[in-house]
Amino acid sequence: MSESAAGQSVTVFAIGAILAAIPLTKATIGWPRRHLLLVAIAGLAIANTVTALSENLALTLAARCLGGIVGGLLWALLAGYAVRMVPSHQRGKAMAIAMGGAIVALSVGVPAAAFLAKLVEWRYAFGIMTVLTLALIVWVVAAVPNFPGQPKGSRLPLTRTFRIPGVAPVLFVTLTFVLAHSILYTYIAPFLKPLGMAGQVDAVLLTFGLVSLVSVWVAGALVHRHLRLLMILACVLFATCALLLGIFSGVPSLVYASAALWGLAFGGTSTLLQTAVAEAAGDAGDVAQALLTTGWNVGIAGGGIIGGIVLSGLGASWLSWVTLALLVPALATVLAAHEYGFTKGELGSR
């Protein structure tokens, strides 16, 4: 299949999360948290096993959709789960540690899978994920504490959660920022190919990933006091990366420098956004996290679709300019949301 068509396997995963995150979170909000966590992880094991063994495109896409369904549930679950394990003054750090796993997966997993595909076959990457997921289930049963779900009467309706001051701006920034990221990330291989860097995709991704780990650490250390400043910097750094790629994409050293800026911008973003929406939503945090998960995955799905259209219609060089265009309203929204959403001051003091 074409590169644009292959990118839709990412889109299907995101669509599964979009369709499931909110309704499944609401339907299971009363479940004990560890039981729900184990069900979601088991779903990922099934999805990756089917992907590894499938010889049929439709079955593969169905498996990726299942992965997205349980993945969306996990994203909505994990942030709230993490903050219940710690005192209030450590909420931001707890989110940074918990959600840093997603960044490590992007930082290490994607380059490792790209390298593994060169040596053997991409199916082995999914097979390895199944083995790791089964080990994770054993660890969760042995070590992760359980917490009760929310009583039925305490659950805030979805529409009222969306109207809480500060929630909507955070969701909009999530959508635009992740959409910009996904357009470039999903199609980084065809973007690099005309630059003569087709054999350096894994190296560029590794650069992005290693710097992302630094960003995760910075976000965890500073989110409690400087959430607004960090989110502004993330938008500015990513916009600078897109601009450099648009103007100097023919210079390999600047491509690597841009990947480093991109990683520094993106690594801590999930921590920043999830902390911001949790702080804004208060007791409606689980539902707000489900909304954020949906927005995040709409961005991923939209990146696969829009990036594919740009790649097929305008060419790979336009991917960076479309990315830049999306970051402008994201930055403007962060700057405007100074009273609710991306506010100054310590978390928990508002």
From TrEMBL:
Keywords assigned: Cell membrane, Membrane, Transmembrane, Transmembrane helix
Major localisation: membrane
Compartment(s): Cell membrane
Protein name: MFS transporter
Residues in Major facilitator superfamily (MFS) profile domain copies: 1-340
Membrane topology listed for this record: Multi-pass membrane protein
Any matching Pfam family: MFS_1
InterPro entries: MFS, MFS_dom, MFS_Efflux_Transporters, MFS_trans_sf
Regions that span the bilayer: 6-24, 36-53, 59-83, 95-116, 122-145, 166-188, 203-222, 229-248, 254-278, 290-312, 318-337
